[in-house]
Amino acid sequence: MNHEHSWHVCGLVIQARPASIPAVKSALLAFDDCDIAAEDAARGTLAVTLGAADSAALLRNIEESRNIAGVLAVSLVYHQQDEIEEPCKEAS
Prior knowledge:
Blueprint: E1 6-16, H1 21-29, E2 34-40, E3 45-52, H2 55-66, E4 71-83
Antiparallel strand pairs: 1-3, 1-4, 2-3
């Protein structure tokens, strides 16, 4: 697979302090290509997808999500790498 023409996406379950959920969501949505697919604010659980043009950028965002104040745990539940026809703007 040509890594210059690939796209990575992952699914995360993020557990946070319930009182911190609004701030955690705001911090996560500041990441490029981040989407909060589902949440249970009372339990402090978020289902999140992250995308990136390369695995290094994806891993940086996963690590940064762990460092958000109020986050207790980040679990990677899915990862996929797809080849694309044209390079992603982030990889250029």
